[in-house]
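ok so I'm stuck.
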Amino acid sequence: ASAAIQRYVELGNALNATALDAIGSRYLCLLNATQLQAIHAPSLRLVSLDPSACSQETKNLLYQKAKEAFSDQHHLPAYYELILPYLGGAPAVDLKALSKDDVNMNLTTFVTLRRESLMDLTPREVQGLLGINLPELARWQDRAPVREWIQLQKQSELDQLHIGLTGGTQEGYINIVTPKFPAMSSAPLGTVAMAFHLLPALLLSFLLVSVLS
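replied:
not stuck anymore, here's the structure
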């Protein structure tokens, strides 16, 4: 299928609605970055695709194409439903904008958002995105990626959601990641300890020799 798509493009054919309909969700993930960039954006208005099984890079590129395709409907209530299949590639700034539009995102969509975008959302913005579905977030608080998102938030701000989320950062505390340093030497610990024990004597001897000379 990948070879057939590549040959189709090499012959100068456009990735328009007819081609995308033939490729469908089944083979959509086979498209490489160059082919994705070549998609005629308005064609996405005429096809139904599901990129949920694709790589993050593919989702990111398809989201940009879909955003371009539906740009003229950005301020209409229908925009969310049109862009919904592609939200897995949405950057944080676009999700923040959606949080102001009462979209009532379901949890299935929320947990499949682009990871770095999700982590950049505040509790209030998550509340805006989920709307009436916010209480369901508590059921996911022990599972990724919700657990990781909670750990990045202030507990006081999570408490303001009134859905029982716990695990956020307490006031006056910061999360510290302890770096792991490589071993100073491959020598046995006893040898290293002996070297440190003898070090002061060796330094003193060196200083005495330097003075006497």
